[in-house]
Amino acid sequence: MTVKADNGNVPYDIHTQLSFMAKGKAKGGAAGKPEASGDAGAPADKKLKPANSVKVRHILCEKQSKILEAQQRLAAGEQFATVAAQMSEDKARQGGDLGWKRRQEVVGAFADAAFGLQVGQVTPQPIKTQFGYHMILCEGRKQ
Predict the structure, then answer these.
(1) Which pLDDT tens digits describe the chain residue by residue (143 residues)?
(2) Residue 65, SS3?
(3) Distance CA 19, CA 2 (A)
(4) Which residues contact residue 142 at a Cβ distance below 8 angstroms, ignoring those fewer than 6 apart?
(5) Residue 62: Cβ within 10 Å count
(6) Are 79 and 94 in contact (CB under 8 A)?
(7) Given 3-state DSSP classes, what are the helix, strand and coil percentages for the chain, each rounded to the nearest 5?
């Protein structure tokens, strides 16, 4: 998603802003904290192994009503990448692919949700950040 800066003339990329905002909050060892299982709806019977990075896709919408529509489409069985390409307001990456992210590279609520997911799992509810509402899919976890 390209957003206009305060002066209305200079666009910047949401991924750059997500990373920039996270770096300001990364101090204090947030990357070393183990993720809490179940934070984003992970099954209680499966414990998450600690991960240093996760491969994620997301759908970003400014309005809650639009992200709820995306959530319904996902629940109906549509492919995540298809819904992301059609509905996400983040056009910087096709299909919502953000690639591999470390916890300190993304903002707090997004990181908590992404690192709380099993591979193949989507957040059960939209995640609210200062950028809007996200649905997040975890495609991989590694140490």
Answers:
(1) 323 333 333 333 444 344 434 444 333 333 222 233 334 444 444 678 889 999 999 999 999 999 999 999 999 999 999 999 999 998 656 899 999 999 999 999 999 999 999 999 999 999 999 999 999 999 999 99
(2) helix
(3) 15
(4) 51, 52, 53, 54, 100
(5) 12
(6) no
(7) 35, 25, 40
